[in-house]
Write a structure and sequence with these properties.
The chain is mostly beta strands and 1073 residues long. This is Big-1 domain-containing protein.
């Protein structure tokens, strides 16, 4: 269900989001065609029919279709559109493939949603399609400016433009239902232009997309969506026509034009002028659809200078740039000096030698309209040159001022800078700014000093394009090789339009027997050549003989020639090699390849090598192409590559996960050609490679292949002591506490990465302690710096003590430590790379070393050792009870402070009842543990172990109380002993009772051991009495039991239960009458 009339820009968002607001379910709306007519007549833009649609965001693809049989069958128009392709809308241009005219044609937009795999369709009315009815087309594009006038606050004007075959066009803003919510009047074609006010539907909140529809008077239409941007008045110009009337009293037409920040016209901008009273501005009207306001017979020469402004407030009568007003001053009639413009006959960049004519640098005086102006002879030009050297280590300088009095029609010849103009007396290669001013000379119109020209000047040189870094072009024998280069200044600025001469020095041609003495390659391209854009040029060299045999060692050289209008750049000869080669080798040839070293590093440095080829007789094979490849077999990520010519500046390699550019890297495969000695050299390096991640080492294998031969060699790269460190990380060593007691150190591990992101050992790091810890120098152990490594065994210790080793009073809390790289880096002299890389330059333009730093936190607390303060003390023994006599027993006292961390350095006195005269003192270790080992001498005994914990190692006072913080005890029990028990009986004197005597023996002391008497009643043993008896010190006990069965037999037995020291025992059965 649609929210009828909701405009697509109501909330200043995308078309899709507005459709989502307007509809509660998936929806497609066909915008064009919207009527009953479509035409392929050329509308001035194309000869196709515009199909456009808008949809909710849950439509994941949409296609347009047509039917010529009332919808029985549908034919696809183009392919499906996976997303809006026209600033939030779906759009396609359709050229029907059936015969025209045709009636009853249906067009539909068919949107698919993967949410429910549904089709969502909006269909046109039956269309008459022809190629004769008039048509219109909106100007295609994306950005459309909108101007909200501060004067008419209800205006939100957009300028709509387009073309039409004929007839008027009405342009409308379309809402979510496809209906028009704002329209222009009839706009006349064939190139129509108008203002569409979208007031009420635009709030300046980007992004904002709108759908427009243009309807021709014939009934055909065109759709186009745009993304709006807010227009800001940026430029105002006023032009008189004619600018200089012969009659000073003639009022001329004045055209005022207002443009936005993108140079586009603004419609509805209010223009005001001070044509009545200077400085008091009167509104004159609003700009039209061309951003212009035209006044007929407006201003004459007697009016002097009239100011025109764009008024950005509703009540303003003065010019105020602070609120966005912009101004242009116009004076018609007599011209005057208003501006200065410089020019260089040698172009924006040139060689010092090319400044050879007085007219090479000139300054032209301009009048108030921007036209060339012949200033009066009383006005003089004053100028100076500002030098900004290419070399950032040389400070910019302002040269001396000079005056030029002679001009021709306002054109002054200005000499180029000379070294004596500058304080240091040198003319450096660099950028030169020409600053100039024009004196008043009694005219009342001086021109203030301003920069009128910027040029670059220096010493031009030839730079051959050398992607492989080998200084030569390689081509198959008997073909044409092309060498490319550029004529540039020192900063790389190209010099187009110059002439370069060439000459060629032939090399040596080889066959299977060696030097043929028939080298014949030569230049076949035009000579001299004129440089193109960016100073580029090319030269063709042909191996003329076409014999198929290699020819190597040839060189093309360069020279300078005079370029008409510019001059001679005066260059020196720069040679570039040309090798014509083969990829075939004779039978029995031998191929070898070798790195210069077995080990290399760190990453980013250069490791060189040589490949050698000779025949079966040991003679060198020259001019043979060999394929080289690199691999790091330990990992799928091949970080090794062959070096290009670009990897050589002090900023290379760059920081971070480095991806080589084409200038830096030739990739992992290259082709080389052998020289006269049968050799070809190669340069390699390595960047990010995961093979470094485990141990900082990885192997790189270089392989050579030619005509079925192969060879390889390997080098071990070590990432230690990198060229640059890009990152350091300091983490707490595993097992170290986050909160440590004040008198304890904490270990941290230092990890570093090189500029590629590889882990690197050997990067020296200095850690600074917070001032509160009393150490302003370093927290590291054994010196100022600590190197990184790859393990987690602890590298850096931080303490809670001052420089004297004393605890800091009230030092509890969390502290932040800072650390930075201070050394351990490699100055890579063999690659020309600098240790100090940066993206920052100082005021002098010099590179500044990048500071690689980090921070980490550690907390300390004042640990409590009293049990009443939360400390815990635990005494255990091992092995567990019972123990075997003669077996060692370990008593362990564990001391933990109030935070659960080990208490080191406490005295523990162990005493046991089995050896009461011996007291064994032990000091708790770093784990808060003290242990005492002893033996139980006999079985069936118990031994009480007591651990007295003191907060002092020595004491002089009462041992029972001196420094005692805890007293812990435990009992150790040995194996129990066997008990033998016997019983005997007799009658009492009156024959009414049975007397049962118990005798027990054991290695253990039986005194007090419980004894129970049982008799058998009805087949079951029943305990006699409730309490039983206890054995005396002789192991004896006596029971007196009433005889219940007279002269019959009574069965008795006694049982002794087990104890910690004795085993259970049962006597034999005693029969008594």
């Amino acid at each position: 269900m649609a929210a009828v009339g909701l405009p697509l820009a109501a909330s200043a968002t995308t078309i899709e989001s507005e459709m989502d607001t307007a509809y509660t379910d998936r929806e497609v709306v066909l915008v064009t065609p919207s009527g009953a007519l479509a035409s392929t007549k050329n509308d001035g833009t194309n000869s196709s029919i515009s199909l456009s649609a808008i949809a909710t965001s849950d439509i994941d693809s949409l296609r347009f279709q047509f039917s010529t049989d009332a919808g029985a069958t549908w034919t696809n128009i183009g392919g499906p559109l996976a997303a809006p392709n026209d600033d939030g809308a779906y759009s396609i241009e359709w050229t029907p493939g059936f015969a025209l005219p045709a009636a009853g044609v249906l067009v539909r937009a068919n949107g698919h949603s993967s949410i429910d795999n549904s089709q969502n369709i909006d269909q046109s009315a039956a269309l008459a399609v022809n190629n004769t009815d008039e048509t219109s087309a909106l100007t295609p594009g994306s950005a459309l400016g909108v101007y909200r006038s501060p004067i008419d606050v209800n205006d939100d004007n957009v300028i709509v433009t387009g073309t039409a075959s004929a007839g008027n066009t009405v342009v409308s803003l379309v809402d979510a239902n496809g209906a028009n919510v704002a329209s222009t009047g009839a706009l006349a074609g064939p190139n129509f232009r108008g203002i569409l006010d979208i007031d009420g539907v635009y709030t300046y909140n980007a992004p904002d997309e709108v759908q427009l529809r243009a309807v021709n008077a014939s009934g055909t239409d065109d759709g186009e969506a745009y993304t709006l941007y807010q227009q800001v008045p940026t430029t105002i110009t006023a032009v008189g026509s004619p600018a200089n009337p012969a009659d000073p009293n003639q009022n001329v037409q004045v055209t005022v034009t207002v443009l936005d920040q993108n140079g586009k016209p603004i419609a509805g901008a209010e223009v005001a002028s001070d044509h009545v009273v200077d400085g008091t501005f009167i509104p004159r009207g609003e700009t039209n659809a061309s951003g212009q306001l035209v006044f007929a017979a407006e201003q004459n020469a007697n009016d002097g200078s009239v100011s025109w402004i764009v008024n950005q407030t509703n009540s303003q009568v003065t010019y105020d740039p602070g609120v966005g007003d912009i101004k242009f001053d116009l004076q018609v009639g007599q011209g005057f000096s208003a501006d200065l413009v410089g020019s260089s006959n040698d172009g924006p960049a040139f060689d010092f030698d090319e400044y050879d004519l007085a007219t090479d640098i000139q300054v032209q005086v301009k009048d108030q309209t921007g036209a060339n102006f012949d200033d009066p002879g009383t006005q003089d030009l004053t100028y100076f040159w500002k030098m900004l050297p290419f070399d950032p280590s040389i400070e910019p300088e302002d040269g001396d001022s000079h005056v030029v009095t002679n001009d021709a029609n306002g054109l002054y010849d200005v000499p180029f800078a000379v070294g004596s103009d500058f304080p240091e007396g040198n003319l450096e290669s660099g950028t030169y700014e020409l600053w100039a001013s024009l004196s008043d000379g009694g005219t009342g119109h001086p021109v203030s000093s301003r920069k009128v020209l910027t040029v670059k000047a220096g010493e031009a040189t030839i730079e051959w394009v050398d992607p492989d870094g080998d200084g030569k072009v390689i081509a198959p024998a008997g073909t044409v090789a092309t060498g490319n280069g550029n004529l540039v200044l020192e900063d790389g600025t190209g010099l187009p339009g110059r002439r370069v001469d060439f000459h060629y020095n032939t090399g040596t041609e080889y066959d299977e027997d060696g030097n043929t003495s028939m080298a014949d390659a030569n230049i076949i391209s035009a000579d001299p050549v004129t440089t193109g854009a960016n100073g580029s040029f090319s030269v063709d060299v042909e191996d003329i003989g076409n014999s198929g045999t290699p020819e190597v060692g040839g060189e093309a050289g360069t020279g300078s020639a005079n370029a008409p209008g510019i001059g001679n750049w005066g260059g020196v000869d720069v040679h570039h090699g040309f090798d014509f080669v083969t990829d075939q080798v004779p039978n029995g040839a031998v191929l070898e390849i070798e790195y210069d070293s077995e080990t290399a590093g760190p990453a980013g440095t250069r490791e060189l090598g040589t490949v050698h080829l000779e025949d079966a007789f040991g003679d060198n094979l020259a001019g043979v192409q060999i394929e080289l490849s690199l691999d790091t077999p330990e990992t799928a990520q091949n970080g090794a590559f062959f070096l290009g010519a670009g990897l050589s500046s002090f900023l290379d390699p760059v920081e971070g996960n480095y991806v080589p550019t084409r200038d830096d890297s030739l990739g992992s495969t290259i082709t080389v050609s052998t020289n006269n000695n049968g050799d070809a050299t190669f340069r390699t390096t390595i960047g990010r490679d995961s093979g470094f991640d485990d141990d900082g080492l990885t192997d790189a294998v270089v392989s050579a292949d030619v005509d079925g031969l192969s060879a390889d060699d390997s080098v071990e790269w070590d990432s230690s002591n990198p060229i640059n460190a890009s990152e350091i990380t300091i983490v707490r060593t595993p097992g170290q506490p986050e909160n440590q007691r004040l008198d304890k150190a904490v270990l941290f591990d230092i990890f570093a990465k090189d500029q590629y992101g590889n882990p690197a050992k050997g990067v020296e790091v200095t850690a600074e302690c917070p001032d509160i810890l009393g150490d302003d120098d370093t927290c590291s152990v054994g010196g100022v710096t600590t190197p990184s490594d790859l393990d987690n065994g602890g590298d850096l210790a931080v303490f809670s003590v001052d420089t004297n080793g004393d605890l800091i009073p009230d030092g509890e809390g969390e502290y932040t430590f800072t650390a930075e790289v201070s050394g351990g880096l490699t100055n890579s002299t063999n690659s020309g790379l600098s240790t100090d890389f940066t993206e920052v330059y100082n005021a002098a333009g010099n590179p500044v070393k990048k500071v690689v730093e980090t921070s980490f936190d550690q907390s300390w607390y004042a640990g409590k050792i009293g049990e009443d303060e939360g400390a815990t003390y635990t005494l255990t023994t091992s092995p567990a009870n019972p123990v075997v006599a003669g077996q060692p027993v370990t008593a362990t006292l564990t001391a933990l402070d109030s935070e659960g961390n080990p208490l080191e350095g406490l005295r523990v006195d162990f005493v046991r009842t089995g050896d009461p005269d011996t007291e064994t003192p032990v000091v708790t270790d770093e784990d808060g543990v003290a242990q005492y080992v002893f033996e139980v001498e006999e079985n069936c005994t118990s031994d009480t172990v007591t651990a007295v914990v003191r907060d002092t190692v020595t004491y002089d006072g009462d041992p029972a109380t001196e420094g005692v913080v805890s007293d812990q005890s435990t009992v150790v029990v040995s194996e129990p002993c066997k008990v033998n028990v016997n019983i005997s009986g007799l009658n009492s004197e009156n024959k009414k009772r049975d007397i049962i005597n118990v005798t027990a023996t054991s290695d253990a002391d039986l005194t007090g051991l419980s004894v129970k008497l049982q008799r058998k009643v009805d087949g079951e043993w029943k305990t006699v009495g409730d309490k039983g008896k206890t054995l005396d010190s002789d192991g004896k006990a006596r029971f007196s039991v009433r005889d219940l069965n007279g002269n019959k037999v009574t069965k008795y037995r006694v049982m002794i239960p087990a104890t910690d020291l004795t085993k259970a025992a049962t006597s034999k059965v005693l029969n008594r009458r």
